[in-house]
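so i finally got all the pieces together for this one. its two components total, 818 residues if u count the protein bits. some of the lines might not be protein, just check the labels. i wanna see the whole assembly predicted at once instead of chain by chain like last time, that was a mess tbh
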Amino acid sequence: MFRRTSLAAAALLAAAALTLTACAGPSSPVASTAGPADPDATVSVRLVLEPTNLDIRETSGAALDQILIDNVYQGLVSRTPQQEIVPALASDWTVSDDGLTYQFTLRDGVTFHDGQELTAQDVVWSLTQHRDTASWIDASTLAGVTGITADGQTITLTLAGPDSQLLWNLTGRAGVVLKEGDTVDYKTAANGTGPFTLDNWTQGASITLARSDSYWGEPAAAAEVAFEYIPDNQAALNAAQAGELDVVTGFDANLKDQIEANGDFALSIGASTDKGTLAFNQTSGPLADKRVRQAIRQAIDHDAIVEALGAGETLYGPIPSLDPGYEDLSDVAPYDPDAATQLLADAGAEDTELTLTIPNFYPTTIAQLLVSDLNAVGVTLTVNSVDFSTWLQDVYTNRDFDLSFVLHTEARDFQNWANPEYYFTYANPEVTDLYAQSRAATSDDEADSLLAEAARIVSEDAAADWLYNGASVAAVSTQVSGMPADNLNERLNVAELSKSAG
Amino acid sequence: MIRYALTRLALLIVGLAVASAIIFLALRVLPGDIAQMIAGTQSTPEQVAALRDRLGLDQPLLAQYLEWIGGVLRGDLGTSLVTGTPVASELWQKAQVTVPLGALGLLIALAVAGPLGVVSALRRGRAGGTAIGVTAQALAAVPTVWAGMMLVVVFAVWLGWLPAQGFPRAGWSDPAAAFRSLLLPALTIGVVEGAMLLRFVRSATLQAVGQDYVRTAAATGLTRTKALIRHGLPNVGLSVVSVLGLQIAGIIVGAVVIEQLFALPGIGRMLVEDVGRRDLPKVQGELLALTGFVLIIGFVVDLVHRAIDPRQRESS
């Protein structure tokens, strides 16, 4: 589940070749030498991927979540960059022991940006509408919610069965609270309850958020945050050096020395849930044989890939370290070309020829490393570089591929391994069952350990290979403080972002 | 002349009709579709199919084409399926960046190429002329991206005189800021296009020098340079006009690179994005408008040529 953030992540990925291997676990925001924050400042932030329109209900793409959720729109609950679930429009909540009833206490005195008051009925309407409108993004994640009611400021959700992912899902699209009967044109405008209002959108260039003076919580630190959409890395570096940008996300770590040379910027490297996924089409052909898939995994030098990228860490299973259920699975497919050659011989697949279908915005380094690693064990790899629309049709829709590389950036997307219909072409009833059990678990510990168990099976089946777990790389001006470091592609809460006057 | 203009106009209309069909069909050959792009990778095939149905993408090709072309004839270039904005208003928006950018680039190119081209022709064989010729040859070979980068590094990063990228949010309501943000990209276009134009001006001038009427004028007592300026240059100008038509088309194509490099919200960048997300109704409208623009420029250039060149008038 990566949506079009893969594009944004492509730029992150371009952060190649630098000895910045330190990326274990969440890192704190860049220390700032900034003076006192200027409350009237505009902070400009470079982003890579512009949303196609602003309709949070129907348009997919993490480019929307990235800037709108938390900043403009809010739900009952939210999540931190470290993926912790925290209160938002609900000041607190309780979950019944059987996991079937969720009660949220809605805050008082919340208004929408147009001045209308937030009522409990708005919440009920939003969640109901979201569950019942199939074309709204993530509608299916609320399918198990049978009752949505309000009594005073108490919102009660009742479920047919326990759902360990419900709170998490409410931190995302499914939980966004809109005003009932609002007439705003959602494609080009927004009316939320967050610390920022949508001030200006110049299509193809920038989106500006302005501090909301009627915000119910701590007001935003900066008067304005301007998101400048600059796909080209060099153009972004130039703009930063010319003093036109305060933060450059998706920064190329190759250029660390250049950006830090005069002391105006410092590099921030955070964790992310980006998973560089090498999918195997295992429905037929040589890849239907588990030995061949395992051989490919063991032929790939994952450390070399991480080193070439300059940031990130290795990953040997479907769950990244920021997500629940993570465990180190490096023992499942250690780098061992000899073992790989042997496995291929056992499978009678010594002179195998395979094609790698890869969207063209990823750095060529990845394909090159794969070609040489596989060549070393006798597998000939042909690289088929295509644009993303073509990838969607050939690989995602038609399953017409041998190997495919895409960066899956979304957090907690294990369900794709439990779904035999997904383009991964992986079907194991045991995994599907374990995932269902994990969803139905009533304690987090139980849910997480079931997920970990399922993830190990997926890895042991060599359902795919995971080339690396990406990093969030950003260049942050030393005038700026409050910039989050982790998972910037997914969600970028800029309420605390500020700039000093000096 | 009127007969010629009418024939030429008919040719223009046929050209547009053919172009519209080619644009429409060529885009249908691209793999991938807009419904899948909107729905994203968490969608089920049923959801994508429903979306396709809602967007009218499962209609027969001919029906889609006729609906589009019918709209165009009524002055409606269509609406983006992705952003929901009318193509015409988007084009108008982006043209406010691209057209001034191209015009400014062309002006710079002409200002460089005109005088220097003539001088280098007149000084042919001498150090100055050779130097100009060689420099132009070298500059014409410079990739636009590299030229732009160098200009940015010098004028934006080192000297800090001009913005490195972007266009002011206020647009042309702050003309000074808008102009400043276009200066470096226009200079990039100007340098590269100018170098190409220079070589053309040079050879046209050299040709004019050898013409009988210049020699005759020189025989009446004018210096060779004066004879050329008085009698030769109008003809050089004439042939430059016809090259300019091509040059403008080239600049529009070049805008894709320039706008990407300078993060300018112009037509070139918009086109690339729209093709990438398979927003075909929008791409169609944009391409048709651009093709129309180039064809009309060709039409005007031909008419102007005809009107001012006595030789062509006689031959008709």
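The radius of gyration of chain B is 24 Å.
DSSP finds 13 helices and no strands in chain B.
anyway lmk what u think
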